[in-house]
Amino acid sequence: MKPGIGIFALAFALLPSTALAEMIRASDGRGDALYLPYYTVEGGAASLLTVRNHADHPALAQVRFVESLNGQSVLSLNLALPAQGTWTAAVIESAEGGAELVSASSVCTVPILAGSAPGFARFRVFDYDVRYPDGGPGDVGRTRAGAVEVLGFAAPLGPFADEVDELECRSIQERYLGERASVISALQPLHGPPSAALSASMQIVEVSAGTVLSYEGTAIRGFFNRVSVVLPDDPLPRFSTPLAETPGGELLLATPSARYAVSEARGPDAVSALFMATGLEGDVANDPSIGAATDWLIAFPTRHAYVAALPGSLFDGGGPVAPFSEAFTPEGACQKLKLSRRRADGQPLFDPQSDPPPPPQRTEAAVCPQVGLLPFVAIDGLDETAARVRFAGDALPGLPLRRADDGQQVILPGLPVIGLRLSRFVNGNLGGGVLANYSFAEPLKPLVQAP
Questions:
Q1: Which residue stretches belong to region Disordered (predicted)?
Q2: Residue 433, Cβ neighbours under 10 Å: how many?
Q3: Distances in whole angstroms, Cα of residue 448 to Cα of each of 43, 217, 445
Q4: 293, burial (CB in 10 Å: exposed 0-12, middle 13-18, buried 19+)
Q5: Which of 281, 328, 437, 450 has the maximal Cβ count within 10 Å?
Q6: Does residue 3 carry a pLDDT above 70?
Q7: SS3 string of 213-243?
């Protein structure tokens, strides 16, 4: 045991709660709830995940991988991050054709990853095929792409903190063994409030193309407003289920336009409000003459809570719940999109009032998975265009909320969405086996409309 660690942990336990009063999207990428909208093993890709603890004391977090079609869990584990610690892992293709997690990190996980150098865990079909069947495919192929939720739910105290900092993984594992109620009772006194000091990032390595797509996770602060004990295989919490200061109490959240109050029972609304947009806009590089290709990744991080009967869901088996207008089907919950693109000089590619779209230009599309790719077609002679998608179809109901300052009921237009531009430039071989290939990922700009 390091000298003084136990004393520090005891002093930390006596401090008043540091939980934030309001939920906000963190501008510095650090928080107690993080969302990474894309992992994939398609085309031989490997997705490299990094989770960092920026605090000077250890942290406990749950990492949950969710599949792309309906956001169902395919693997969850707890991280015990030392002070200023970093955990790394990779999602790769499994021998069965699905995905699996591998890690050589010395940071402790619960359960401990099987095997050695590195340890691994295969993604599972159990939730969507057995526990919460939704009518979608039940095979391992559904695990090949999805998103990651990282929830920093507590700081370990006392001897538990010492074990985390000293990387005593077997001792940490033993704390989670036994009957569920007894485990929670024993862990409760050893859990302090989270510090909202976690960050996460993803690198998607496409070996065959010689490219790497890197992006930072989106962070929320004020997600856990009371101390919580989370077991690794519990179906909750999710990125859509924040905790109020008292069970069943109110959640306060702040957006650039207003502050809102939401009951904990409608926790998905609180998170959704932080991501509401009527569409997305960004750039497209897609010219065959320079080997440029662009996809847009469109993710609806809370959609599962509105369109399917899952743990923590607001959906009761009837129609979809606002702000969504389509219930989940085996193909997904399709969201229609209106597309437009402009040339570098700002002029539209065609006049929609008088000209038909030039082939193969599209003006309409749909994204059916909770996490889906929107590919852009090449247009000869145009190496860069600006693009915009707006949510279309039947009139979207918007998200009903109550303003915290005056109690007025308002409707936030749009849908909760996160977008990434994924661009690749494949310029062939320079000779000697050296590939001249490049890639990058950048956030798409949300189109926000005031209520």
A1: 343-363
A2: 6
A3: 34, 20, 9
A4: buried
A5: 328
A6: no
A7: EEEECEEEECCECCCCCCCCCCCCCCCCCCE
Measured between alpha carbons, how far is 72 from 68 in angstroms, rounded to an integer? 8
d(CA 93, CA 83): 32
State how far the Cα of 451 lies from the Cα of 446, in Å rounded to an integer: 15
Per-residue DSSP letter, 21: S
Label the pairing between strands 33-40 and 218-221: antiparallel
Nearest to 325 by CA among 414, 260, 411, 265: 414
DSSP single-letter state for residue 17: P
Structure-token match 């531009």, residue found: 421
d(CA 328, CA 319): 10
Torsion angle, alpha carbons of 45, 437, 215, 46, to 10:
10
**pTM of this structure:** 0.92
- Tens of pLDDT, residue by residue over 189-237, are 999 999 899 999 999 999 877 889 999 999 999 999 999 999 999 999 9
**Secondary structure (3-state) at 360:** coil
End-to-end CA gap in the chain:
55
CA distance 18 to 115: 38
CA 311 to chain centre: 17
H/E stretch holding 367: strand 364-367
Whole-angstrom distance, CA of residue 3 vs CA of residue 84: 18
Q: For the segment 70-95, what is each residue's pLDDT rounded down to a tens digit?
A: 999 999 999 999 999 999 999 999 99
168 token code pair: 């005593």
